[in-house]
Specification:
The chain is of the alpha/beta class and 355 residues long. The protein has helices at 14-32, 45-51, 57-65, 88-99, 160-175, 191-207, 218-227, 239-253, 291-303, 308-323, 341-353; strands at 4-10, 37-40, 68-73, 103-108, 130-135, 145-147, 152-154, 180-185, 212-217, 234-237, 260-264, 270-274. The chain folds into two domains: 1-101 and 268-355, 3-Layer(aba) Sandwich (Isopropylmalate Dehydrogenase), CATH 3.40.718.10; 119-253, Isopropylmalate Dehydrogenase, CATH 3.40.718.10. It has a ten-stranded mixed sheet, sandwiched between helices. It has a two-stranded antiparallel ribbon with strand order 6-7.
């Protein structure tokens, strides 16, 4: 196969971690005899600096014709203009909508080598394996916004169709796992959550009768994630709740630097990125953790290219590198040595060649 991967390095540490993910994808191609093609494009703050807008037409066109999109991170205090289209994050929202990627998958599976970096006790982390399915193109982030000197509003709205399609993805994925979906909402207060609960219940009951469905209020879910994380399998949530809960779930993994994500729609193409931000305070220092970006590349192989063996090989290489002590500053124990971004990528490449 000869697929095209659009690479959007972005801002801050984005170019550093994305470079390691691309190196690992190229290595997978060599080992398994695939010819991946890579094409870079400006995006986010870097694109604003270059041409005045976060999502240039040429970048959007590349993403539209690519077989998958690999992204770094965007944003930072340098770009705080509130005018429409002048913030990096506005470019990301526009890209998600243009690509039609409405379901964001965020796996959370703590590795024993990172248990010490988590504030939770290790006994709470063993056997934790959570897949968050977050609706990505609806809700309060995309609703109408108003602002005056003394008041502001953000409209949160959902249609039944938007909820149905993401519920189906959660049901399909649950069938490949432990067949348990916990759907998160705020049904006791919000009208959108009342609709959410009703539609999710109908879809799961009629199309996924073999999957057990449990409803949970978002505040209860926030507590349960740290009190009893092993009870979660697939966690289905609307846009804002999912954004918040997955950042909380990063404490289970020990660092945001270990958590990848995949944003999918109805087709095979998807948008793949680590969940962490651009971390401008450490940008350019070569100390960022590239594992989330590399694991995002593994999700790309799995979901866009249907290369299951190759995806597992890359994920296993990251796991073995961690087991051998390849950790960056965010995971290093007192007295141990932290690897650079490049060296951490080299550790994964070394494990890949042993495959």
């Amino acid at each position: 196969m000869n697929p095209l991967i659009a690479v959007l390095p972005g801002d801050g540490i984005g170019p550093e971690v994305t470079a390691e993910a691309v190196r690992c994808l190229a290595a997978v191609g060599r080992i398994f005899q695939h010819e991946f093609r890579f094409e870079d494009a400006p995006f986010g703050g870097a694109a604003i600096d270059a041409g005045g807008e976060p999502l240039p037409a040429t970048t959007l066109a590349l993403c539209g014709r690519a077989d998958a999109v690999l992204m770094g991170a965007i944003g930072g205090p340098k770009w705080t203009d509130d005018r429409p289209g002048q913030r990096p994050e506005q470019g990301l929202l526009a890209l998600r909508r243009a690509l039609g990627v409405y379901a964001n998958l965020r796996p959370v599976k703590p590795h024993p080598a990172a248990f010490a970096a988590s504030p939770l006790k290790p006994e709470h982390l063993h056997d934790v394996d959570i897949l968050v399915v977050r609706e990505l193109t609806g809700g309060i982030y995309f609703g109408e916004k108003t602002r005056t000197a003394t008041a502001a509003s953000d409209l949160c709205s959902y249609t039944a169709a938007e909820i149905e399609r993401v519920a189906r993805i959660a049901g399909r994925l649950a069938r490949t796992r432990r067949k348990h979906v916990i759907s998160v909402d705020k049904e006791n207060v919000l009208a959108t959550s009342k609709l959410w609960r009703q539609v999710v219940a109908r879809v799961l009951a009629t199309e996924f009768a073999d999957v057990r469905l449990e409803h949970m209020l978002v505040d209860t879910a926030a507590m349960a994630l740290v009190q009893r994380p092993r009870t979660f399998d697939v966690l289905l949530t609307e846009n804002m709740f999912g954004d918040i809960l997955t950042d909380e779930a990063s404490t289970l993994a020990g660092s945001m630097g270990l958590l990848p994500s995949a944003s999918l729609g109805d087709g095979k193409s998807g948008l793949y990125e680590p969940i962490h931000g651009s971390a401008p305070d450490i940008a350019g220092r070569g100390i960022a953790n590239p594992f989330a970006a590399i694991l995002s590349a593994a999700l790309l192989l799995r979901h866009s290219f249907d290369l299951q063996k190759e995806a597992l090989a890359l994920e296993d290489a990251v796991g073995r590198a961690l087991t051998r002590g390849a950790v960056t500053r965010d995971l290093v124990r007192p007295g141990a040595q932290a690897l650079s971004t490049r060296a951490a990528g080299e550790a994964v490449l070394a494990e890949l060649t042993r495959h």
